[in-house]
Amino acid sequence: MSLVLDPAAQDLLFREARTANTFTDEPVTDEQVQAIYDLVKYGPTAFNQSPLRITLVRSPEARERLVAHMAEGNQPKTATAPLVAILAADNEFHEELPHLFPHFPAAKDAFFSERPVREGAATLNAALQAAYFIVGVRAAGLAAGPMTGLDFEGVRKEFLDDDHTPLMVVNIGRPGPDAWFPRSPRLAYDQVVTTV
Predict the structure, then answer these.
(1) pTM of the predicted model, to two decimals?
(2) What are the tens digits of pLDDT across the range 46-56?
(3) How would you write the chain as a 3-class SS string?
């Protein structure tokens, strides 16, 4: 059985897409980011909780502050990408549930009244949204360079607050010279999928 999605789109989103390590200086516009968000906001999350929060790092001053918290090998990538996004989980996402889950507004208190429960749910569901975001960047014809090599607590203190947990930093732009490392192997279907 073949996929319904056009093979060129399959290549763009998955087969040919890889983490970019260099970028051109072509800017990434607010309109492009808005279009990406308007596409990926429809990805499912539990209780439609939508806990992902995105901080766009544009100014040279903010970029310098962020680069200081990146692992040494990631600093040049973040310093030169046209746009950098800090993806974080909002641990107070439950405050939006009466709006986002209107057919059961009591879910806010019935399931998410305790902070540790919210933190677990926020991390899992924001990570799902982060994956959608990366695919959305690819759908816009841009390259994404997601990274977790950073000082998470430093990034939280510098750019967020105690109610937000950073998940990753994503460099965004058009791929530059020698942007790609060789593709690493993937597991075969029968190594991953078990039928019971």
Answers:
(1) 0.95
(2) 999 999 999 99
(3) CCCCCCHHHHHHHHHCCCCCCCECCCCCCHHHHHHHHHHHCCCCCHHHCCCEEEEEECCHHHHHHHHCCECHHHHHHHHHCCEEEEEEEECCHHHHHHHHCCCCCCHHHHHHCCHHHHHHHHHHHHHHHHHHHHHHHHHCCCEEEEECCECHHHHHHHHCCCCEEEEEEEEEECECCCCCCCCCCCCCHHHHCCCC
